[in-house]
Every structure is written in structure tokens, then in C-alpha cells.
């Protein structure tokens, strides 16, 4: 029993519970200082030689000579493992480049040589070891674009990709050919540079720093860092931590640094369903065929981003067994190749051979539009099919025409689009057809003067616009959602006419009173007259009708009628890749690399020598806080005596209560009592009562 009458075990358990936090912090500080911290600072190669860190090459040689003289004289016979450690340290620290890399950045990439030698000579004497252990792999300066200052790295309008390397690194020597291929892939989209770590001031700007102040490269050399366009400080520096392959590096740079879209691969089974069917009907389909399966080069992604409103991009992995399928589909003979799929019925445009930035841009400029364009909210004014705009010929033209075929997406519409495209091609001089030139002269002249435009309209997506021009009992077969199996494309021609110049319009507006301005503010500036075609689908008949309608519009005095045309429904202006493709985890930095990154960050702080003292300080502070708070509760009472004092107070209270009750019991009655218990009422006589 303890002095206070309580069991000793109970008192000790109470104290352990009260001071649990300080004890835990103290235990952690001891474990960190004695177990974790020594493993984070293993003996250096200088320690193996018995000299201080950063000793000169001469001091290294002297230390090795002292040890080897003892071995030669037989004074000491080292174990083979000890000899290998000493010899490895000597060879590493007497090479100026290796020593520099080890001293400044802790780089020791030949350590695997030492581990292999330990296994090879485990049972042999040290005298049987073949020397030297390390082969010198130094190579010359092969920098593509050297950077010697931070200003040289930041004064670039394009994103910058830098390779940090060492002339004495075997890994860097093997990576050079891959680096040259990466530079070729990024040509035109990025500035490429190389920094040799001998440029210490520049190299330390791009290196990471441990809590101890040691500069290091997390994955050794070579190391890749990138500076986005406009980056002026190291705060926006991006480090590549994936596999050092052409595909992984270019994909990381294109998506993470430049912000370019990722272009997906499709098989022959998924190409039509997942790519061509899901791409907008107004877009040209650009399909790249690759033998390697590598992801799209940045210049291809740049083109996809620039032309996203006009074209959709996809990749296909070429297989020889699929030759007949691709030949019958697109006339593709081999890879690499690119094919442009445009209007229905139009032969695809095929290019065989390797691509670079300039070649691809030329191809895109010539093939980014359909031959028969779609009438859309973003193209209506450019095509000259907008009563609020002007003709393609310019603002001076007062009358112009637009021939439109409208309908729901269907084989019938595709056939009519092909017919109208053929009409346009014939009248533009691209074909020969036995048609009277006089009958088509008005159409030909309008085409040459850019007063005539051909387009097609998605009647389902543009229901109001379509119904405005084709308002009839049968317009539901052409405009709006499909109600039955009937799909009937319709052809119509719109004549636009302005009867005043822009100056006259402005002058007229200033003379109008406010009431007239309110009446006319929603009216289109150009009048519109619509002619609907009800003839056959034969090309000569269509040409005659178009030409006759244009002739009537130019020669006859037709009514000038203005109204308000419904707006075209805008398409999705946000590119598909910007909504989710950027958030897809790149294979170059996948889940495995992300997990490794977290572990490496934790290990960096585990090696911080300040953590042990901080834990000990926390233990002391928590111990003092708990002791002080408990002492202030009972200043004159020891913690072990609190229960005893409480019991004594309770006993004193009970004794006083018993004494008080006893005194009350023996106390004589008072005359002030309301009814004394032994009181007697004396009888009164009659005389007295009188």
C-alpha cells in the first residue's frame, strides 16, 4: 500500500495516464535519434578512408596510400568487403568529375558496381580483385543549347525544357540519343536547353534541397525540368519524375507544361463508333496511322488545339494484317500516314510519309474545311448567309445569294449534300456536264463574283431557323426531331438585298424618331426572299433552277421585305479535351510514380536532424504544462493526498452534525415555543370569570 492508503499500482497507472503525451513524445524522440537518424546519414566515402568530408584529391590519395602500405607490408590484412569499400571510395574521389558530383549533389550512380563486386569476390582474397572497379565513361560537350544563367533560361517566349546532366555520368551518355529525339519532337513548340552540373550556380537553381541544406536530384541524373511560358522564378518550375522515354517525356511536356490536348488511339472496331460518329458533322476527320504506337507529337497536338473548331483528330495503330481493311476504307497503303475524311461521297485526302510541323500545317490549311460547309452560328457571316452581314464579295455588294440544303442527319441528307457539292464543283470549273451555258450563266457569274454560296443546314439542331425558311405543312419531315421514318431534305435559295449604303443607313437612323426606332430595332438590315426547290434531284435541273432564280433576283423588281431571322443555335464552343482529358492521369506519371513521390517526400523529412530535438522539446513542454495545471488545482495538497483530505473533511462534517443534533435533544423548552409539550390549562372559576 502507498502512504495515502491506495494501492501502489493504481497510483502509478494514474500518473502514467496523466503524463501519456509527454512520455510518447519522449519515446519518439529517442527512437528518432537512435534508430532513424543514423540510417539517414550512412558513413560517407570520406569516412571509409578516415578523412574529413570534402577533402582534396591529394588528401584522398595520401589516405589510400597509408592504408595500402599496411596491406602490402602484411601489417594488416583487410577483409575483402572492407578493401572493396576503400578502393571504390578512392576511385570515386580521385576522379574530378565524380568527386564534384558527389560533393555538391550527393550523386553516386556507380554504387551498383560496388554491390556487384561484393557478391563476386565474397569468398576471395582482396588480392584477387580486378582493378579498377569503375570504368571512366566521361564524354564530350554535346549540348544542343547550353544555358549558363537564369536570365538565359527565363528570357524565352516559348516553354523551356532543360536537361541537367554530368559529363561523367554513364546514364547521361546513354540518354543522349533519346534526348535528341525528344528535341526533334518538340521542335517549334518549345525551347530546348542543356545544363552541365559543372555550372554549379546554374545547376543549383534547378536542384532540390534537403532540410540539411544539401542540393540533390531526386532521381539522379539525367534530370528534366520545364519552365512554362512566362515563368520568371523557380516557384513555377516543373520536374519530370516519370520514365525517361521519348513517349513519356513528350506526353508530360505537351499536357502538363504546354496544356495541349491528348489525342486518343482507336482500333478498326472503335474508329467509326467512338470517333467518327461522335465528332461533329461539320468537322473534318483527321486520322493518323502510326507504326510505333507513340502518342501524338506536340506539334500535332498544337494543330489539334488550333483547328479544334474545324477538325477532329484521332490515331490508329497500323497492323499489317489490317491492310485490306484500311485500303478499302481510306486507300491507306502503309504507315506513317494521315487521312482527311471530308464530305460524304468525297474521296479522302491521303498523305503517306513522316510529318513535321510545317508539312502538317500546310496540309491542315488546305483540308480543314468541308467542300460543302455547314451553316452554323460561327460560319454564317463568313459564308454570306446572314441578313445581318454582307456578301463574301464585300460590303459594296447590295444583293447576294445562298443555296442551302436542309435536313436531319441521314443517308438522304448525305446524298443531297453530295449532289449540291457536285453542282458547286461543276459550276466552279471542276467538271464537265452537258448543260446549256446560257441557262447557267447567271449562276456562274454569281459564283465568280463571290455573290453565291453553297451550304448545308442541320435541320434537327437548327429547328427554328429551318422552319423559318421552310414553313409548310411538310416541314416537320425536314426540320426538328425525327417523328417517323421519313427524312426529306429540302433545297432552298435565299436572296439577300441591301438597298442603302452604310452611310445612308446611319443618316436615316439619325432622322428617325424614337417611336420608329423602337419599331425597327429588331429588323435585319437586309431583306430576304426565299425560293424553294420542288423539282427532281437531277443535277442539270438543279443548276437550271438556281441560275433562273438568280437571274430573276437580279433583273426583276421584287419586293423589299425585311424581318427578324431566328438566331442559329450555337454549337458547343468548348473543346471536348478541355473538359476532362487534362485531368486524366498521364501514364508517364501514373499512380506508381505518384505513390513513390509521396514516399520520397516523407523520407526527405525523416532525415531532418531537427525533428529529434523538436520532439524532445515538445515532450518537456507538455510535461511542464500538465504538471503546472495540476499543481494549481490544489496548491497545498499533494496529488496523492487529495482523496485522504476529502475523507477527513467529510468525517469532521458528520461529527459536527451529530453534536448539533444531541444539543438540540437535551435543550429545555423555551417560553417562546408555540405549544410546550408538558403545558397544562388551569380551570377558571365563575367569580373569576365575572
How would you characterize the overall build of this protein?
44% of the residues lie in helices and 11% in strands. Helix 2 runs antiparallel to helix 24. It contains 26 helices and 15 strands. The strands form 4 sheets. The chain has a 5-stranded mixed sheet. Strands 2-1-5-6 form a 4-stranded mixed sheet, with helices on both faces. Strands 13-12-14-15 form a 4-stranded mixed sheet, sandwiched between helices. Mean pLDDT is 82; it is low at 510-515 and 576-589. The chain has 690 residues and is α/β, with parallel strands linked by helices. Residues 653-666 have a biased composition (Basic residues). InterPro entries: DnaJ_C16_autophagy_reg, DnaJ_domain, J_dom_sf, Thioredoxin-like_sf. Residues 631-644 have a biased composition (Polar residues). This is J domain-containing protein.
Shape: elongated
Spatially, the strands of the biggest sheet line up as 7-9-8-10-11
Query: Beta-strand level of the residues, as a percent range?
Result: 5-15%
Structural class: alpha/beta
Radius of gyration equals 46 Å
Say how many strands there are: 15
Largest sheet composition: 5 strands, mixed
Q: Please give the count of helices.
A: 26
Report, as a whole number of angstroms, the end-to-end distance: 85 Å
The poorly predicted ranges are 510-515, 576-589
Mean pLDDT: 82
Helix content: 40-55%
Domain J: 44-106
Biased composition (Polar residues): 631-644
Organism: Linum trigynum
Biased composition (Basic residues): 653-666
